């Protein structure tokens, strides 16, 4: 039986549960059209393929912590827009890992992903080397960033691995003619990501480190506050990073009356809004990050509830990580 589910208006939708079906039927997911599956034909709305994805470049950005992968994924690259994400699995019985697309090159047929080695699934992902394949890759998923053409200044704020995801969004605003101001932060200089890449199209880049080793000493909110005090014509602030950082940005911008968008990397299972794992309270209404997001009005997100939901599985994640014998070394 196939579930009939709505496709977002922009068309970026791909049910990840199909990969399970294809694997169980003995069909490798690599470059197999979803329309070729009889019980899906005419019953599900979809756009694209579910496929294995080959790693063509792997780069350790921060040893033991953060890695960048460039994947051969032409069908995803052709449709990917800023703000979209993918869900991948390392092997057929592995957990699904949602990652926001850090860059996409339709001409080369590649997408770039950046991840923090934090648990069992990302540890297993980090064991793969160039030339090896992911079991399956679903995407592009989610609603892309809403970008209207215009010259107005847009401030893009990134923290941690969120800087990589913010990179794709900031580039999208720049290509649409906006004056992009990039604000990035980390605990120290050697933990900053994508600074050079952002400089290529940012009108201005502001850097904050906790220890003062690069840029101002403090947080991204300190740099953002100074900028908002000096510039009254900011059209929008977009924040991507740890939940506490995005919450702090939203709290900061509220009295300025500046539109603020946050990208929520919630827990996800199926990526089609059926499991409900990624639900978030936005303006008193339940939304699903996988199909309604991942971007939402930062001034409407219930961050207290979001933090509670994200921490609910931490004991189980830690146990799984310890039992697999995973090590950052």
Quick rundown:
Its EC number is 1.8.1.-. The chain has 329 residues and is of the alpha/beta class.
List keywords for this structure.
329 residues; alpha/beta; Elongation Factor Tu (Ef-tu), domain 3; Rossmann fold; eight-stranded antiparallel beta sheet; seven-stranded mixed beta sheet; disordered N terminus; EC 1.8.1.-; oxidoreductase activity; OxRdtase_FAD/NAD-bd; FAD-bd_FR_type
Model description:
By secondary structure, this protein is α/β, with parallel strands linked by helices. The protein folds into 2 domains: 17-141, Elongation Factor Tu (Ef-tu), domain 3 (Beta Barrel); 153-311, Nucleotide-binding domain of ferredoxin-NADP reductase (FNR) module (Rossmann fold, 3-Layer(aba) Sandwich). It has 9 helices and 17 strands. The chain has helices at residues 17-24, 74-77, 120-126, 162-175, 195-199, 220-230, 243-253, 303-311, 314-323; strands at 32-33, 49-62, 66-72, 85-89, 97-100, 103-105, 110-116, 133-141, 153-159, 179-186, 204-209, 216-217, 236-240, 259-263, 279-282, 285-288, 295-297. The strands form 3 sheets. Strands 1, 2, 3, 4, 5, 6, 7 and 8 form an 8-stranded antiparallel beta sheet that branches. It has a 7-stranded mixed beta sheet with strand order 12-11-10-9-13-14-17, sandwiched between helices. A two-stranded antiparallel sheet has the order 15-16. α6 (220-230) packs parallel to α7. The radius of gyration is 19 Å and the shape is globular. The termini are far apart. The model is unreliable at 1-48 (pLDDT under 50).
């Amino acid at each position: 039986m196939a579930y009939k589910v709505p496709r977002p208006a922009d068309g970026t939708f791909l049910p990840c549960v199909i990969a399970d079906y294809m694997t169980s039927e003995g069909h490798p997911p690599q470059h197999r059209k979803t329309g070729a599956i009889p019980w899906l034909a005419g019953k599900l709305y979809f756009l694209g393929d579910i496929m294995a994805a080959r790693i063509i470049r792997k780069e350790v950005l921060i040893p033991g912590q953060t890695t960048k992968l460039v994947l051969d994924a032409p069908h995803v690259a052709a449709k990917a827009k800023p703000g979209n994400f993918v869900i991948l699995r390392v092997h057929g019985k592995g957990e699904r890992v949602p990652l926001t697309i850090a860059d996409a090159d339709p001409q080369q047929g590649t997408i770039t992903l950046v991840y923090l080695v934090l648990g069992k699934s990302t540890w297993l992902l980090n064991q793969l080397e160039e030339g090896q394949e992911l079991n399956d890759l679903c995407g592009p998923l989610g609603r892309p960033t809403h970008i209207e053409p215009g010259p107005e200044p847009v401030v893009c704020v990134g923290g941690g691995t969120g800087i990589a995801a913010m990179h794709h969004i900031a580039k999208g605003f720049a290509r649409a003619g906006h004056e992009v101001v990039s604000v990035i932060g980390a605990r120290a200089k050697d933990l900053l990501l994508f600074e050079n890449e952002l400089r290529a199209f940012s009108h201005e880049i502001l850097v904050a480190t906790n220890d003062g080793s690069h840029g101002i000493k403090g947080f991204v909110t300190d740099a953002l506050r100074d900028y908002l005090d000096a510039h009254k014509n900011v059209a929008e602030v977009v924040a991507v990073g740890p939940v506490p950082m995005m919450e702090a940005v939203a709290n900061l911008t509220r009295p300025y009356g500046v539109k603020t968008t946050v990208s929520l990397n919630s827990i996800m299972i199926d990526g089609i809004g059926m499991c409900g794992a990624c639900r978030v309270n936005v303006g008193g209404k339940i939304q699903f990050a996988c199909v309604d997001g991942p971007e939402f009005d930062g001034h409407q997100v219930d961050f207290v509830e979001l933090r509670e939901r994200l921490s609910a599985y931490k004991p189980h994640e830690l146990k799984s990580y310890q039992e697999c014998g995973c090590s950052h070394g």
